[in-house]
Amino acid sequence: MTLLAGVVAAVAGVSVAEAVLPSSSVPGASTPPASAILAGASASSSSWYCAAPAAAPAGSQATVLLTNLRSRPVRASLQTVSTTGASTEEQVTLPAYGSSGIPVPLSAVEVVLRGGEVSAAQQVTDSLGSSAAPCASAPSTNMYFGAGSTAGGAGMQVAVFNPLPTPAVVDVSFVSPSGLVVPPAYQGIPVSPGTVVTENVSDHVPSNGSLAAVVNALSGSVVATEMEEGGAPGALFSVVDGANQLGSVWSFAQNADPAGGGTTFTLVNPASGPVTVTASISLGQGRASPLVVQVPGQSSASFSSQNETRIPSGSVFGIVFRTLSGQGIFVGRQVSLPAGGPLPANSFGNAQLGGVSRWLVPAVLPGETVGSLGMVDLAGAPERVTIATFGSGTDSGRSHSNVVDRVTLVPGALVVLTPSTGFPLGSEPLVLHADGPVSVELDPSPAATPGSAPVPLWPLLLGES
Asked: Is the pLDDT of residue 1 over 50?
């Protein structure tokens, strides 16, 4: 293991910071990356790429969850490839306005669709429960994961899938509170066309309690997913989707300060210079003063909800991170709960990048019921939000007359919605329209606390038709 704390080491004339993060990716982004976009109604075909099942623990089961937002059935082909090269192919038909869970081997999956307006997620399940994350609609040259750990028995796997016909070569590096971690064993990893590789991070970066991973394709493009095993007794694993660019605005719409545990946020700065970040806290009642965090260059900084008196104990809150300079960072979340309590005891996830005004709110995962939908205003001014169902001849790219709820968001306030008569939250897909950018999060029930097991496969930015 090579550990560098603010030190620039020359590698063929290139600094470590540049090797980990290409300078073209550093500027902040205000909108979600292309990998979060659903193909619109006019698309003749579309694809999704799911790497997580390839890194799933032995004995677990993997499922690809497909939701068809169209008024007619859509044909799909699922092609899988394992780390040993074994492959399968399956043809399925997705019902109109319906969701389908297709069991798949513990392999990377490419979903090819005849048309657009179909979303895809990857779910891994074992005896303790399940975790899910979005599949990617496009490969990328960079993937960023804001939270991870190899301490206290925790396991961390990174799966890298190359679905393209051209070879790829990737570096996998890490940012910690002590600086950059660049294991030689994870540099220059070849990923042949149509193959997937997995790396067990504990092999070369053991006993590190705060690791943010960066996957950088030196050539080609890839899809990467992180699989984190909590380590604590009874801890569920987490499937963590990566962001494919840095950004200056990140958010979690629904979080909690659980009794006996806590929610920890990690702010990651891969650039060489320091960055100042403000964390604006939205409460259901009252107001909280912003928190200012200084993050050194090529390093990360964390804070926990239970240590912040401005966050009322036991409260549910939203949080928005903004860099004062517009510099690009990435952000992760870890939710920890006492051992022996409701599952999961330890979970990890990435923040939402930027903010958009149009979101798909899905049905919850199989075996779960909906708990709540949290929304936070990102515009800095009051916003009107309309929530509508699909059906009655209205596809996702068209206007919606079947409105089920209207709310107003104001800066600094968290709005939480729960299911009610005439409001089918969690039982069928919904589309959310706002006047400006908003942050949203759907949490299932039962869950130990908001944020510990969110429905991370959606909301997704809806592609225009």
From this structure: no
Three-state secondary structure readout of the chain: CCEECCCCCCECCECHHHHHCCHHHCECCCCCCHHHECCCCCCCCEEEEECHHHHCCCCCEEEEEEEECCCCCEEEEEEEECCCCCEEEEEEEECCCCEEEEEECCCEEEEEECCCCEEEEEEEEECCEEEEEECECCCECEEEECCCCCCCCCEEEEEEEECCCCCEEEEEEEEECCEEECCHHHCCEEECCCEEEEEEHHHCCCCCCCCEEEEEEEECCEEEEEEEECCCCCCCEEEEECECCCECEEEEEEEECCCCCEEEEEEEECCCCCEEEEEEEEECCCCCCCEEEEECCCEEEEEEHHHCCCCCCCCEEEEEEEECCCECEEEEEEEECCCCCCCCCEEEEECEECCEEEEEECCCCCCCEEEEEEEEECCCCCEEEEEEECECCECCCCCCCCEEEEEEECCCEEEEECCECCECCCCCCEEEEEEEEEEEEEEEECCCCCCCCCCCCCCEECCCC
Mean per-residue pLDDT, 53-79? 92
Query: Dihedral sign, CA of 202, 207, 213, 217?
Result: negative
Question: Around Cβ 10, how many Cβ atoms within 10 Å?
Answer: 9
33 pLDDT tier (thresholds 50, 70, 90): low
How far is 346 from 348, CA to CA, in rounded Å?
7
Please report the pLDDT score of residue 28 as a whole number.
37
What does the pLDDT average to over 417-439? 85
Mean per-residue pLDDT for 117-132? 84
pLDDT tens, residue by residue, 251-304 = 999 998 777 778 999 999 999 999 999 999 999 887 899 999 999 999 999 999
